[in-house]
Amino acid sequence: MKTRPDSAGVQAPRRRARWVVPAVFWTCVLAVLLLVFGPRPFGEDATSRERPTPSAVGTLPAAAPAPAPAKSAVPSAAADPDAMPRSAPTRLKIAKIGVNAPFTDLKIGPSGALEPPPADDTNLVGWHAAGVSPGERGTALIAGHLDTATSPAVFARLSELDAGDSFEVDRADGTTARFLIDSVESFDKDDFPDRRVYDDTADALVRLITCAGAYDRKAKDYTENLVVFAHLQPTD
Fold it and tell me: CB within 8 A of 46, min separation 6: which ones?
């Protein structure tokens, strides 16, 4: 950036120049200190796994009718001593709506959104593989398509679930995690409650996420997300 001529003559640039090096030096030192000791994002500690942005599970193709209104909430369980060790999920079973689907790994894309499962398999769910596994203490994320361009998909009937319903997740270690649904709610994608859905917790929780609401043909996307909030049931 050019500077205006100084009325004090040619000696003024030299006086300014003597401060350039110290200013740059201390700016660099401050930047390093902030990176090391600065504040962390809300709900995050040194061992936290990466979390997606509010737009997670954003673009799911094709159209479907709007879901039923949000169901009444049931308070989630207190801090859960029955939380299970980490183990990858292998199969999601929701008897009430006929879901029996294998899992695929999902990751967070360049935009910060959780990438959806491949659209060419209508009976497939995905989990945030860099995050919490279902049954483990924390918030596990499971995503599935509502439909595709040609047919209904694995979460086509997710809006039929109610508070008090249950589902199961088979895990790679041979165990099964059973979850009780607390609430089923829809949110505008422009006003998605990311902290409520994603934040760390002392409980073993799961969120089932899909698209909902009206289909915007111009944007080629739905206007809402449907989220099922659930917690791990104690083992007998």
Answer: 40
| Domain 89-232: top CATH class | mainly beta
- Say whether 62 sits in a helix, a strand or coil: coil
Q: Work out whether the CA dihedral 68, 69, 74, 75 comes out positive or negative.
A: positive
- What integer pLDDT is reported at residue 79 of this predicted model? 58
Q: What local confidence, expressed as pLDDT, does residue 127 receive?
A: 97
Which residues of the chain are under the pLDDT cut of 70?
Answer: 1-80, 236
The DSSP bridge partners found for residue 158 are none
CA distance 142 to 190: 20
- Bridge partners of 181, per DSSP, are 230
pLDDT of residue 122: 94
Q: Specify the residue for token string 């980490």.
A: 86
Locate the domains of the chain by residue range: 1-38, 89-232
CA distances from 200 to 41, 178, 214 (A): 12, 20, 31
Convert the pLDDT of each residue in 91-116 to its tens digit.
Answer: 999 999 999 999 999 999 888 888 88
Q: What is the sign of the dihedral through the CA atoms of 159, 164, 167 and 172?
A: positive
Q: Where are the beta strands (DSSP E) in 118-175?
A: 125-128, 138-144, 166-171
Q: Is the pTM of this model over 0.85?
A: no
Rounded to an integer, what distance in angstroms lies between the CA atom of residue 205 and that of residue 90?
A: 17
Distance CA 216, CA 149 (A): 14
Can you give the pLDDT at residue 120? 87
**In the numeric block, which tokens belong to residue 49?**
């796994």
Identify the bridge partners of residue 106 per DSSP, sorted by sequence position: 128
Block residue for tokens 């673009």:
59
